[in-house]
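Shift notes (night). Ran Trk system potassium uptake protein TrkA while the centrifuge was going.
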Amino acid sequence: MNIVIIGAGQVGGSLADSLATEDNDIVVIDNDAERLRHLREKLDIDTYQGNASHPDVLENANVMNADMMIAVTSSDEVNMIACQVAYQLFHTPTKIARVRSASYLDHPELFSKEAIPIDVLISPERLITEHVYSLIANPGSLQVIDFANGNVQLVALRAQYGGKLIDHQIREFADHMPDVDVRVIAIFRNGKAILPDGDTVIEVDDEIFVIASMQHIRVVMSELSIAEKPYKKIMIAGGGNVGGNLAGLLEKERYQVKIIEKSSDVAGYLAERLDKTLVLEGDAADEHLLQEEDISNMDVFCAVTDDDEANILSAMLAKRLGARKVMALVNRPSYVDLVESGIIDMAISPQQITLGGLLAHVRRGDIVSVHALRRGAAEVIEVVAHGDEKTSRVVGRTLKKLKLPPGSTVCAVVKENKVVLPSHSVVIEENDHVILFLSDKRYIPVIEKLFQVGMGFI
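Came back to this:
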């Protein structure tokens, strides 16, 4: 596939990195020559320097031959105009744009062929807000992913002392939870992925990815770690798009929410907009303010300003002052592992969350969703099976007969909203949703090809 990526920042660079290994021809456009040089040295891709909203720049970057253009610069306006030019002058089939401003997003009628012809809108702030909300709604989780319209849930958690299944084999799950269908799809131990089988023993500090129906996931989590009480009191540092929207979601679910915002204008706006949230004007790294606002009794402190250092320092301070769980939004990839190895419970990576939202629209075949695990170390994808035994490589076959690439496994099959955990005898039928784990992203094109409908496969 020929793909033009506009913007060589963290999201654009990560996207190019992910797609360049998957048999795609990539061109990246950016104004910054140093960023482009770095990408050329690291990846086997083409680059072009210039303003991507200018027709001559797009033409010189060969947009007329692109199957897809993805605009992810930091400017909404550049992204939107680039899509307009690509549509009007070069008839680019698929145009994806990152749009951050709620002022634009609140008017979906703007984004049509008659107005601004963007096929897929990606809003990082909304994706991040939903991600953080899911972590708060599922205490003890490191990552929460819904599949098949919420019928299936994948949760990442860390195995802890006190968990009933610590130092036990996975096959013993059935004895502890006889009425629960659960699958351990991956374990990350000392930073390396393990594809577990029944003999695999769960160890303390393992990062475990489990999949089960939504009604059973809490029971599964309680077997692997110390069951955590639901969160109730939440303090948010930063009243921007993420912080303000997160507070709005939480207050509707009867959480007790406080939000700290430096800007008096933003704090005033939030005070008018939010009904039940206590809005405080001040610095979230002010020890006196945190103590005055009862930080030691907060269940979660969540730092989501646009400043990595401010988020990290305020979260560390909140933890030292007694907050039960602390989260920090961290944009720099090099900071993420460093932060989580310290006293901060969770580092939230905007670029990985955004990347997952983008990849679902880039993949070939009927891929419903794509999610990066462990900051891109692996992926879980949900794909719909189409065709019949003559036109499909998967329909009518048992899971045992699927020719999956190395490091890949079927996590679950959803048949008409019924979750079926994998066994060799499960047969894939048309319109089944198949959820797969891939420890090596290089094999994603193999999965895409496997699920594509064609002729003469038998």
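Residues 353-451 form a domain with the Alpha-Beta Plaits fold (CATH 3.30.70.1450). The chain is about 30% helix and 25% strand.
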